[in-house]
Structure formats: structure tokens, C-alpha cells
Specification:
Low-confidence stretches: none
Largest sheet: 7 strands, mixed
Helix content: under 10%
Oligomer: single chain
Mean pLDDT: 95
Order of helices and strands: EEEEEEEEEEE
Shape: globular
Distance between the termini: 40 Å
Number of helices: 0
């Protein structure tokens, strides 16, 4: 069983940067995919970025070029560097992990608010 805990959320102004971290209680080396999802008020949860065990990455079109996902299997952590933040990036961001087809492991979420 892997437990995931997010940190690093907060309030920033448009154009600023923020870094989210996800710490795992157990080894993440067995998790083929790890990713960041987000859910804005009144909207469905969406995949923002994912990274595989071989470090292949995928980004949603809305964040490509601004966000960077990374993982450290030795430290059992994953991060999301978010640059040039926009008000539409405001959401609760969730760390998730998968060893198969489904996202099995979820964190409780971290609030990111982008506002002037």
C-alpha cells in the first residue's frame, strides 16, 4: 500500500511560479505511472501531467511548456514545477500513482490559487 501526500500549494499572482511535491510512504518504483490531476470548482478532475517509470512524460495541452513533472524513485517523491501560472490554473491538485491501468493511489490534494 502506498500513501501519497502533497505539499507546496498556495496563493500566487499570475505569472509567478510554484512547485508541488508528492511524498510517498512506500516505494514508488513499482508504480508504472505517477501523475498530477487537478479539479477546479464546478469542473471535472483532469489529468495535468504524468510520468512513467522510464521517465516518459505527458502534459495536457493547457500546461505544456509551462509545467514540468519529475520523479525520484530513490527518494520516493514526485514534483510538479509550475511556471507562468494563470488564473485558470486555480484548482486542487492531486498526486496519483498507478501500477496498472487505473489510478489506484491518491493524495488528499493541495490548493493552488492564482489571483492578483
Amino acid at each position: 500500500q502506498v500513501q501519497l501526500v502533497e505539499s507546496g500549494g498556495g496563493l500566487v499572482q499570475p505569472g509567478e511560479s510554484l512547485r508541488l511535491s508528492c511524498a510517498a510512504s512506500g516505494s514508488i518504483s513499482s508504480l508504472y505511472r505517477m501523475g498530477w490531476h487537478r479539479q477546479a470548482p464546478g469542473k471535472q478532475r483532469e489529468l495535468v501531467a504524468l510520468i512513467t517509470s522510464s521517465s516518459s512524460t505527458f502534459y495536457a495541452a493547457s500546461v505544456k511548456g509551462r509545467f514540468t513533472i519529475s520523479r525520484d524513485n530513490a527518494e520516493n517523491t514526485m514534483s510538479l514545477q509550475m511556471n507562468s501560472l494563470k488564473p485558470e490554473d486555480t484548482a486542487v491538485y492531486y498526486c496519483a500513482g498507478s501500477s496498472g491501468l487505473d489510478w489506484r493511489y491518491w493524495g488528499r490534494g493541495a490548493q493552488v490559487t492564482v489571483s492578483s
